[in-house]
Amino acid sequence: MSPAPHAAPRAALRAALCAALCAAPRVTRAELPAEEGAAEEGAAEGGAAEGGAAEEGAAEGGAEEGAEAARGRARAAARRRLTVGPFAQGRPQLSLGAGRAQLNGGEFFTIQAQAGLFVLDGLLASLGAQYWLSRSALPSGYLLAPGLTYYAYALHPVAPYAGVLYQRVWIDLPLSSPDAVGARLGAALRVGGAGLLSGGARYMRPLSCAPSAPCGEWAPEVSLQLGF
Asked: Any idea what DSSP says for residue 53?
């Protein structure tokens, strides 16, 4: 029996396919993990680079925010110094001044010194001392006077003030009472960065006075306060 007419072409086609497949390069299993490892290594390097860039950007942003916050605090401190100035909490004050006083029908010229500390913005706790120099035949004397004074510092450059005080007098005179309480009123003008030039009046009333007795007295006061 003779072969079928299409047998030879089919055999030739199978031979051509076999030659093509056998000549194609083969990828072994050993080569696959190396390629996958290279891909993973590249992905890891890319992730690390992106993470480093993100951290660097966050650090730069935090530094800029910190610098801006510092500038804001500096601006706020400058505004506070301009408004509060010599009346700021924690600032000590030393003042020197002069005035006059009347006692037992005699008139005295007073020289005074006062040391104080602003316990709050505008609120001064002070201790004053005065030397009374007699302008007549009366003996001279001295006194101590602690007090509290509040300055309306927001009304710069002139700050009105009001305060209360207690005083104790030591003098060789027959006084009805060496102790007195009183009040002071006036205004303070800012001088330089921390100085104050103050002028006003104070009212003192001896503790031994009857409530209806007219024994209180007004006296002027002028002082120069130096801040530190």
From this structure: H
d(C-alpha 6, C-alpha 84), whole Å: 113
CA distance 32 to 169: 106
pLDDT in tens for each of the 228 residues of the chain?
A: 455 555 566 666 666 666 655 555 554 544 545 555 555 666 666 665 666 666 666 677 778 888 888 888 877 766 666 668 889 999 999 988 787 777 767 788 888 899 999 999 999 999 999 898 887 778 888 889 999 999 999 887 899 999 999 999 888 766 667 899 999 999 999 887 778 899 999 999 988 888 788 888 888 888 888 877
Strand partners for 151: 161
Is the separation of the CB atoms in 144 and 129 below 8 Å?
A: yes
End-to-end CA distance of the chain: 131
Q: Give the three-state DSSP class for 214.
A: coil
The Cα 32–Cα 10 span in angstroms is 36
CA neighbor of 112 nearest in space, from 142, 154, 139: 142
The phi, psi pair for 117, rounded to 5°, reads -140, 130
Q: How many CA atoms lie within 13 A of 25 on its CB side?
A: 2
Q: What angle do CA 45, 50, 53 make, to 5 degrees?
A: 125
